[in-house]
Amino acid sequence: MVLLSLTASHRELDLDALERLSTGSSSVGRVVVGTCGPVAGAVVISTCNRFELYLDVDAPLSGDSVRHATRHVAELVAHSSGVTGEVAARSFTVRTGPEVTEHLFAVASGLDAMVVGEREIAGQVKRALEEAREQETTSKTLELLFQTASRTSKRVGTQTELGAAGRSVVALGLDLAERELPPWDATRAVLIGTGSYAGASVAALRARGCADIRVYSQSGRAATFAQSHDVQPVDSLVEALADADLVVSCSGARGRALAVRTDQQAAEPHDERLADLVAGNYGGPTTLPHLTSDGAPEASLGHVLDAAALVRARERAADRAGDEPEPRPLVILDLALHRDVDPGVADVEGVLLYDLATLKAHAPAVARDVVAQAQDIVDAAAHRFEETRLGREADAAVVALFDEAEVRVRAEVADVVARLTAELAARGEPAPQDADVDLVARDVRKRVHAELHDRIVAVRARATAEARAAEAALVQDAEALTAEASAQRDAGSAARR
């Protein structure tokens, strides 16, 4: 078994490119396992600032096979996201072996987050594994890898100050927004979406003293979410916006053809491309949108909140204000990678829009000693996991030795029992009983296994060394492949400028 990961995150790509790449990511793991024979398991992490695919490959890998596997997976990602295979391939950072473990543990612990120390990512890593289980794409090795990553994240959270300050994308957004808001106990907030970020937003708002929180959802889950979080559901987004000071949008519905254009009308979820992909229909004209020269879809995906709806809401707010000079300003936080909010909203009078790109630019630094302490925990956990994993790789060689020893044991026991039987017969005594044969077998097996000890140690050491050498070579190949992709990205960016 070889661990292979393909990563695209805010560190390697701008958020627009990452958004295109991760569209339709929910089906990728299932398709990769279903179409790539050597892939025994796959887990996909797709969040507001990363798209990562972790693979358990049941085959020897060389530099050429890593390149082939990367290209094959990139083609599948391309089909589900609407970019070209070339664009997808050069978007990934490729890791193999121990680098996969080190990276996932760092991600789960918040060390690779847009806001270093963010705790939401730990839950996202757990949910990625749960989704892989539901889709039946995980494997024993990936189960152990992700479970250990979650335990490592908990240790970082309890043994360091990295997560003590409640650092998160949500917290950073609220920190920026509060400069333009009334006091928190007088702020009226509207949430768009009912996922994990919505739950985190409710908690963060309440911690600041905001009590007037309403929730809107096109999927019809607002009432259920409102009941479980003790907030108020709303049916009309425009009506709610007319009375709001703050909007936190985190539905991630863009890309599922959901749009808010009027108070009464919302499109139904429509995802023919993913259905086609799962069915294996990669080619036809209805599967993919037309692409631009850099691999982006020509037609923009629908936004949950567009400028027209917001203008209507602001007009209603102005009507309600009556003789007042102008309605209160509206601050919008768009926390969805797929841009719930139309960027044109920023041009509406009296509206301030903060999206992920803005938050990324304002992400605060973390004290070096805190990061170093967390990194030490991650490194130690990754080392232990790799030692255990390599030990399991060597177990096959050890099992073969024991199988060989068992053949020898049976032969020697048969020989001893035959001689004993002959001696007893010569003295006119009955043949050995089952208890006598079991005693002989125990003695022979103990002696043979004792003689095996030195051979087992040598075989395990040799197998571990060979696995390390092979993975070291794969790491070099992966680094070369990533460097090549990075150079292509830089060349593409220069050409567009």
From TrEMBL:
Primary role: Catalyzes the NADPH-dependent reduction of glutamyl-tRNA(Glu) to glutamate 1-semialdehyde (GSA).
Comment on protein domains: Possesses an unusual extended V-shaped dimeric structure with each monomer consisting of three distinct domains arranged along a curved 'spinal' alpha-helix. The N-terminal catalytic domain specifically recognizes the glutamate moiety of the substrate. The second domain is the NADPH-binding domain, and the third C-terminal domain is responsible for dimerization.
One protein family per Pfam: GlutR_N
Domain of life: Bacteria
Keyword match Oxidoreductase: yes
Other facts noted in the record for this chain: During catalysis, the active site Cys acts as a nucleophile attacking the alpha-carbonyl group of tRNA-bound glutamate with the formation of a thioester intermediate between enzyme and glutamate, and the concomitant release of tRNA(Glu). The thioester intermediate is finally reduced by direct hydride transfer from NADPH, to form the product GSA.
Organism in which the protein naturally occurs: Promicromonospora thailandica
Similarity-based family: Belongs to the glutamyl-tRNA reductase family.
GO molecular-function term, one example from the UniProt record: NADP binding
Catalytic residue positions: 48
SUPFAM superfamilies in UniProt: Glutamyl tRNA-reductase catalytic, N-terminal domain, NAD(P)-binding Rossmann-fold domains
Gene: hemA
Domain Quinate/shikimate 5-dehydrogenase/glutamyl-tRNA reductase: 175-267
Residues annotated as site: Important for activity: 103
Involved pathway(s): Porphyrin-containing compound metabolism; protoporphyrin-IX biosynthesis; 5-aminolevulinate from L-glutamyl-tRNA(Glu): step 1/2
Assembly and binders: Homodimer.
InterPro entries: 4pyrrol_synth_GluRdtase, 4pyrrol_synth_GluRdtase_N, GluRdtase_N_sf, NAD(P)-bd_dom_sf, Shikm_DH/Glu-tRNA_Rdtase
Protein name: Glutamyl-tRNA reductase
One example of a Gene Ontology biological process annotation: protoporphyrinogen IX biosynthetic process from glutamate
